């Protein structure tokens, strides 16, 4: 997906409604409300301890020192030291619990997004860049870390401190308190403006980070490097990446500087307030106003400083929350993605699968809501008996792979139905379907792990003997055994340490290990040379024995022995029958065979 193209899914109009979104964010913390209650108690205790210190200071300056009461002075000093110790202990415990809760919430979010994406249909991934998906999980959730782990606690802590401090200030002198709080509403208004500004910039920044992640994923993969080097586009790709990075630099600077001068003014005014309080108290005394003791003034300024720190932090937290709303919105977009392929509420579970596959008046459209686009498949009626073989042939774009992918529910039919042993595949539970249907495609995917780990992906509890047996059946055991590290050999990114034929045989061994009763072979040999194809075909023959096999064929020489051959044209069955029968008809299949024969010598 190009960065200028729209996202594959657009959230509903009310998705940016902040109150609804805030409620949804708070819901994330609901499972941990017990721990958060403990944090709240620690916050309250810490605030009370902090507020007590100025009162101890007032008594020290107004009573203990002027009256020479050394015993009282020692107790007050000890009280101030004890307050500092308790505040420190409460702060450490508060940080530990709140960070743990925050990280659990992060874990829940990551797992929820990953689980949601695992349930999406193949169509979603064909229209979404891999880097975009990775960016949502890594950058967006990672960007929320500070907010989730500390903001909630900081909000409660600072709010409690502000309330407790204001109450204490009023208790000391309500007139000085009014003077101190005159500008607070203006500061709140400024912080809200800054927060809205940063939230908009953050949305743009995260989109740009997703674009960069997609560029890196595509261009720095093994395939991307090969393409860039062989096409002489390495410098062009570097310049393109530099342009993307330059745009990100601009957004990062704008994000960090948004409202920075306004917040700096707030900080300057708050720092200057003690001087204003001293001046106000002094002028009031000179003009015959109420007498305020030195201890009261010092204690009040101490409280005021104690007020301004959490007040500034509270305003900054408000800005941070506004910024984080943009990140949460991007995560919620993925969590709200409509899942096309779901399991029934009470699905059918089959302990034993014979393997009969039926396509009954099957229709399929990639966009079921777009009636103007013609169907990819239309009116397909085909039956494959258990243990039988079906070959699907036809020109490019005829719908061959799509038809095969309907059986394991990589797509769902938009009309008609596909059955396995007489049960609609949409009614089967996912476990039954996964055990019953194996797929070997032309594009073999191997993880950057050892050969053994790649094979055991199909059967995690497989023994070494089972691995060796599967590899022998796939004609690849001798080659693996000849490697210096044998089955512990790392296959490399996407299996690039192995040739195309070797990767295909590893994929076949992996499928043999899983032992599915139904097998989908999607042009598994079309990209191979004739000699390699012969070795892979022997492995496929071993794999197909006693299984229901659907072969999407590019080279027709591989499917002549199929029980039934179906020729697709424009999504409909044009011809069907056995190899010899279709040759006798001298129709589309015979033409494809002649074309294949002409091309064979060039392979």
Element layout with pairings:
Blueprint: H1 18-28, H2 33-64, H3 70-118, H4 122-126, H5 130-143, H6 145-172, H7 174-181, H8 184-219, H9 222-230, H10 234-257, H11 260-286, H12 294-335, E1 357-364, E2 377-384, E3 389-393, H13 400-405, E4 415-420, E5 423-424, H14 430-436, E6 437-441, H15 451-456, H16 464-473, H17 477-482, H18 500-514, E7 518-522, H19 530-544, E8 548-552, E9 564-569, E10 572-577, H20 579-585, H21 588-599
Parallel strand pairs: 3-8, 3-9, 6-7, 7-8
Antiparallel strand pairs: 1-2, 1-4, 4-5, 9-10
Helix pairs in contact: 2-3, 2-6, 2-12, 3-5, 3-6, 5-8, 5-12, 6-7, 6-12, 8-10, 8-11, 8-12, 11-12, 16-18, 18-19
Polypeptide structure, described:
The protein has 603 residues and is α/β, with parallel strands linked by helices. The chain has helices spanning 18-28, 33-64, 70-118, 122-126, 130-143, 145-172, 174-181, 184-219, 222-230, 234-257, 260-286, 294-335, 400-405, 430-436, 451-456, 464-473, 477-482, 500-514, 530-544, 579-585, 588-599, and strands at residues 357-364, 377-384, 389-393, 415-420, 423-424, 437-441, 518-522, 548-552, 564-569, 572-577. The strands form 2 sheets. It has a 6-stranded mixed beta sheet with strand order 6-7-8-3-9-10. It has a 4-stranded antiparallel beta sheet with strand order 2-1-4-5, with no helix packed on it. It starts with 17 loop residues before the first helix and ends with a helix.
């Amino acid at each position: 997906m190009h960065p200028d193209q729209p996202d594959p899914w657009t959230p509903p109009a009310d998705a940016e409604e902040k109150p609804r979104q805030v409620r949804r964010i708070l819901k994330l913390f609901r499972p941990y409300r017990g721990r958060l209650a403990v944090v709240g108690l620690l916050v309250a205790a810490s605030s009370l301890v902090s507020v007590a210190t100025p009162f101890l200071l007032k008594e020290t300056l107004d009573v203990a020192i002027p009256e020479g009461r050394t015993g009282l002075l020692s107790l007050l000093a000890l009280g101030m030291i004890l307050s500092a110790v308790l505040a420190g202990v409460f702060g450490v415990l508060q940080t530990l619990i709140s960070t743990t809760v925050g990280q659990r919430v992060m874990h829940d979010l990551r797992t929820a997004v990953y689980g949601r994406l695992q349930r999406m249909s193949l169509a979603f991934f064909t229209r979404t860049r891999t880097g975009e998906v990775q960016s949502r999980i890594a950058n967006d959730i990672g960007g929320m870390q500070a907010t989730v782990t500390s903001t909630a606690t900081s909000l409660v802590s600072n709010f409690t401190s502000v309330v407790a401090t204001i109450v204490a200030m009023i208790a000391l002198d309500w007139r000085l308190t009014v003077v101190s709080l005159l500008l607070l509403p203006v500061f709140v208004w400024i912080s809200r403006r800054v927060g809205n500004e940063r939230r908009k910039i953050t949305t743009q920044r995260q989109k740009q980070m997703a674009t960069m992640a997609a560029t890196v994923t595509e261009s720095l993969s093994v395939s991307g490097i090969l393409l860039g080097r062989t096409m002489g586009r390495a410098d062009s790709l570097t310049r393109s990446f530099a342009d993307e990075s330059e745009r990100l630099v601009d957004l990062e600077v704008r994000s960090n500087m948004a409202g920075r001068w306004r917040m700096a003014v707030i900080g300057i005014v708050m720092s200057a307030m003690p001087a204003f309080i001293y001046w106000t108290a002094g002028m009031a005394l000179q003009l015959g106003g109420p007498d305020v003791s030195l201890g009261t003034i010092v204690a009040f300024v101490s409280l005021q400083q104690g007020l301004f720190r959490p007040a500034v932090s509270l305003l900054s937290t408000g800005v941070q929350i506004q910024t984080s709303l943009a990140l949460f919105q991007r995560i919620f977009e993925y969590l709200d993605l409509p899942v096309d392929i779901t399991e029934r509420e009470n699905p059918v579970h089959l302990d034993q699968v014979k393997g009969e596959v039926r396509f009954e008046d099957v229709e399929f459209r990639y966009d079921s809501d777009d009636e103007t686009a013609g169907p990819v498949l239309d009116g397909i009626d085909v039956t494959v008996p258990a243990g039988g073989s079906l070959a699907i042939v036809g020109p490019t774009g005829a719908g061959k792979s799509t038809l095969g992918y309907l059986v394991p529910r990589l797509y769902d039919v938009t009309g008609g139905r596909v059955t396995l042993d007489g049960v609609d595949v949409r009614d089967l539970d996912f476990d039954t379907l996964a055990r019953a249907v194996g797929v070997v495609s032309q594009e073999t995917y191997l993880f950057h792990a050892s050969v053994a780990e790649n094979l055991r992906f199909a059967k995690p509890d497989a023994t070494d003997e089972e691995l060796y047996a599967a590899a022998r059946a796939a004609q690849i055991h001798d080659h693996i055994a000849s490697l210096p590290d044998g089955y512990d050999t790392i296959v490399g990114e996407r299996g690039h340490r192995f040739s195309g034929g070797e990767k295909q045989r590893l994929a076949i061994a992996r499928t043999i290990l899983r032992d599915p009763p139904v097998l989908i072979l999607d042009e598994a040999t079309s990209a191979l040379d004739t000699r390699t194809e012969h070795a892979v075909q022997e492995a496929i023959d071993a794999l197909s024995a006693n299984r229901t096999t659907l072969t999407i064929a590019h080279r027709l020489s591989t499917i002549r022995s199929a029980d039934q051959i179906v020729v697709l044209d424009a999504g409909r069955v044009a011809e069907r029958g056995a190899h010899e029968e279709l040759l006798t008809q001298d129709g589309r299949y015979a033409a494809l065979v002649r074309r294949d024969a002409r091309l064979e010598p060039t392979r």
